[in-house]
Amino acid sequence: MLTYDNKIILAPMVRIGTLPMRLLALRYGADIVYTEELIDWKFLRSKRRYNDILKTVDYIDQSDGTVVFRTCDEEKDKVVLQLGTCDAERALKVAKMVENDVAAIDINMGCPKEFSIKGGMGVALLEQTDKAYGILKTLVTNLSIPVTCKIRIFQTPEETYSVVEKLVSSGIKAIAIHGRTRTERPQHAVHTDVIRFIAERISIPVIANGGSKEIEKYTVIFKFKEMTGCSSVMLARAAEWNCSIFRKEGLLPMDTVIKEYLKLAVEYDNSPSNTKYCVQNILRDLQETPRGRKFLECQTMDQICAIWDLEDYCQEKQSNYHKLGIQGRWQVTP
Ligand code: FNR
């Protein structure tokens, strides 16, 4: 059973936290990896299928054939599925579908985007704590795997604490706290004091989040842990920019990380659009260089791979998969 003490965790990130990035984070040293947020009603349109070519479990959207969620044995005991939901019954249906494929379920109570708030999801749940509690309680009561949630802070530590106390009373196993309010943006300073205030007062593990801007190397993860007085630390942007932040031995050069990421993306037939997006977020400013511009023009996996000298690897894998029956998803979709 997954536990949350002394863990370094890959945060949920839409489009970034797909299978290749999660596996890369685990191989570099992350203890737990969260999926990107998956919306309950979209998930309910999918069907589970074992992919015996890739050796993965796939949840395939029945309306358009896209992969909603792909996972494999290597991450089974460490992957946490994050759900976007505003409805206990729907959340439970999804959780029951995946209960045997993932290590835990997390509910997103921190997303401030309009799409989430309009749908009563994400940070909107922190305004409706009875509903938020109800979702967690339903999951805790009916699932055999741990349930957690990820929140943002309120204006004051006391207000934050009173909400956390209520959520914790549902029986969740840990709570991740992003130390910013719903109106603060990533460039704002993270309120480590508020996270600490909570961590000192509740009995379950608190996972500190929001420190990526300052966490530019592995050892700083522990400084953030100390500052927040938390059991565990969760990293989003630091991992998005250079996933080798999880390595005890120190950061790897960006090109090495991209190469290792691309190999996994090819191996697990990740969509070219998603692969390109993730590489763009590693390259960042370097997209403006001649090589970056060449990369931006790429339309296929083998074109992307060629820039990092992985053209042969990519073509060989793809032709094997093609022979075995996976048919061309190798074009970037608009
Ligand atoms: C996020 N974040 C986020 N949070 C969440 O609960 N579910 C999600 O799907 C996402 N998606 C997402 C995508 C991207 C590209 C980013 C950068 C962030 C928020 C994230 O998990 C985290 O709370 C914040 O980024 C703060 O942590 P860092 O970046 O300082 O480590």
Write a structural description.
The protein has 334 residues and is α/β, with parallel strands linked by helices. It has helices at 19-28, 40-43, 88-98, 114-118, 129-142, 157-168, 192-199, 218-228, 237-241, 254-267, 272-283, 290-297, 301-307, 311-324, and strands spanning 8-10, 32-34, 38-39, 46-51, 56-61, 67-72, 79-84, 104-109, 147-152, 174-178, 206-209, 232-235. The protein has 2 domains: 8-246, Aldolase class I (TIM Barrel), CATH 3.20.20.70; 254-324, no CATH class. Helix content is 40%, strand content 17%. The strands form 2 sheets. Strands 1-2-7-8-9-10-11-12 form an 8-stranded parallel β-barrel, surrounded by 5 helices. A 3-stranded antiparallel sheet has the order 4-5-6, with no helix packed on it. The radius of gyration is 20 Å and the shape is globular. The mean pLDDT is 95. It binds ligand FNR. Ligand FNR is lined by residues 11-14, 16, 36-37, 82, 108, 110-111, 150, 178, 186, 209-212, 235-238, 240.
Quick gist of this model?
The chain has 334 residues and is α/β, with parallel strands linked by helices. It has two domains: 239 residues, Alpha-Beta Barrel (TIM Barrel); 71 residues, no CATH class. 40% of the residues lie in helices and 17% in strands.
Topology:
Blueprint: E1 8-10, H1 19-28, E2 32-34, E3 38-39, H2 40-43, E4 46-51, E5 56-61, E6 67-72, E7 79-84, H3 88-98, E8 104-109, H4 114-118, H5 129-142, E9 147-152, H6 157-168, E10 174-178, H7 192-199, E11 206-209, H8 218-228, E12 232-235, H9 237-241, H10 254-267, H11 272-283, H12 290-297, H13 301-307, H14 311-324
Parallel strand pairs: 1-2, 1-12, 2-7, 3-7, 7-8, 8-9, 9-10, 10-11, 11-12
Antiparallel strand pairs: 4-5, 5-6
Helix pairs in contact: 1-10, 3-5, 6-7, 10-11, 13-14
Bound molecules: ligand FNR.
Ligand FNR is lined by residues 11-14, 16, 36-37, 82, 108, 110-111, 150, 178, 186, 209-212, 235-238, 240.
